[in-house]
Write a structure and sequence with these properties.
Number of strands: 16
Number of helices: 14
Largest sheet: 4 strands, mixed
Radius of gyration: 35 Å
Strand content: 15-25%
Shape: elongated
Structural class: alpha+beta
Helix content: 25-40%
Oligomer: single chain
Strand order of the largest sheet: 2-9-8-5
Amino acid sequence: MKVKWKNYIAKLIIFSMIFINISVSILGFSQYEVLATECIKNKYEGKVNNKINEISNILMRKESKDLSDWEAIALGAAGKKISEDYLKEVDKKIREDYDDTFRVNTDYGRIILAVTAADGDTTNIGGINLINKLCEINFKKDHNLFAKTFAIIAMECGNFQVPTNSNFSKEKIVESILSKKNQETGGWNGINGVDPDTTAMTITGLSSYYEKNSDVKETVDDAIIALSKTMDENGEFKGSDKTTSASSESVSQTIIALCSIGKDPATHKDFIRKDKNLIDLLFEFETADGGFSHQKDAKMEDSNGMATEQGLLALIAYKNFIEGKKGSVYLLKNFDNIIPVEKILFEEDEITLKENEKHILKASVIPENASNKDIEWTSDNEDIAKVDIKGNITGISEGTTVITAITKDGNKMAKCKVKIVKNEKNIIEIVNLTPNSELKLGNEAEIQVKAINNFKEDKNFILIIALYNEEDNKMISYDLIEGMINGGEFENFKTKIEIPTHGKYNIKVFAWDDMENMNSLSNRIDMKIK
């Protein structure tokens, strides 16, 4: 009886093996791989999602001032809403200590990633435009591989456009990165030969060009082989020294790199050791407090900040991969629904205004349904004409200048020539009523003037009576009188100015609209001190 059962079981096993082989032959190897990937996906999906949520929840409970940039990047990549207080902290840090915030060029890339992850405005944070600052760096002189890699990743993370007239070139930076590859090994060097972290991060930086640039593809494929050779039979990566070897960060960076170019880190044959894949190996660094350790120890109780940041990013990258999302984990914005700006047009190419006259310069962003239609306005010379954030132009003084509008998306530009001519008649006309006897050295002179409103509308203004030194034309003292004159009427004003006993002086009287804008409303009268 036992013999019959053994024969039956043996026949069943042989039949099953034959059936599997026939099935693989019929389906084809690629389809068999798909089935294998689905099995792997089912095995890890729940575990990966749970760990992402666990670490994210720990980070979300942190105060904004304690959240690191890389933690913010990971949370943004996980689709978590980051508190606006984090952006306020970044803004404050840049304003208060710019030099410490940007000590090396890689800092620009990191902060661009963090601000993008927090849904902030990289063109206006801390009073600066981070994209412009990054693109001002001379990467021909900066030989730091990480600076170049971070620059590419930062520009790609939000699909940022290179500013007009900038010498920044992603293509040239990519060429420079390719040229730095170790030609013998195929990877990128650290301190002592090919470094796994450096090689993996560089692959991630090049990932957007992997499918569209044959040189990049060939280089990256070689680099993957080189990267796998830094991994020993136990699944530990060899770093530059003992402190960087056998680390979770190397595992995390390799997962991120493979996912960025569409390779499955759970099935890639070059990274399987003793039946363990990269996902298995990463979870071996899991600690009791919910994070990841830098290296394994006996207790595995306390997590390491950097290891946890990179481990979280690696799991998010793998989650994106198994969900069919293409590209690097650092592509922080969803570009599928973004409609880019193609151009910007003005209704007028040239306008003429009078002093103090206002005009709205209308701009049209094409296409009308562009996702980001924000515009930055500038005047080449604000002494001639000013422009506000809505395109409202104010003529200041006689002359010609150019008003420029640049779209925040794509840096598309439109220009308008603005000519300002003198008013035939000032809004406020000032007439001197001061007796000459008052204008003497050592006097406390009583200055009297008449202000006439030449317009029909009532007008508020500031009357400035100022004492100037004739030798250097510097203001010594002044008095301000706030006034309002009904349309077509006049008012008399007087005040006292103390004149020094020695020197050459004159008194100037004129009117402004207010002390904030300081737009001239009147003629100026000069009184010479005798």
